Amino acid sequence: MDTPLRLEVIVASVRPERFAPVVAGWFVRTARARPDFDTGILDLMETGLPVDLTESAQTQRFRDRLAAADAFVAVTSEYNHGYPASLKTALDSAKYEWRGKPIGFVSYGGLSGGLRAVEQLRQVVAEIHMVSMRESVSFHRARKQFDADGETTDGAALDGAQRLLTQLAWWGRALRTARESDAYPG
Fold this sequence. Notes:
186 residues; 6 helices; alpha/beta; 6-stranded parallel sheet
């Protein structure tokens, strides 16, 4: 097997009393159970990215972390039919570091399960030259889908996470090989 892919799981919500750590924690445990990934967590609450997109030490540390990654998964909530502003700031805070890399989505929310946020994100990540995974994970009425230990028995989510990770591993290996042999032309 190749060297494990560096997967960064981006925790998008920065709201007080957010549910994001529960969903992200479950997904990170799922990803870490697979030998094809070396999984880290990029919690946007902790990055300190300037919302005005000015250059800063925090921005450079964030970009360095992105540059070292082979793949990403954004764990996102849905706010007012869209994704959190913190995630837009993160996407706009870097440019070349995202390019030629795959991204998957784990969403959560009320009735929509965050699916409208993911549909918007697919357009944004295409514009910054990323490859969006077809498979995704969505939790409708998320707070009811997890037990006190942060685990879920939602069969669709369990299956979806494995399918997402399998696609992410394939694309991650293919794109890493491509980037190593020839610089991305974007």
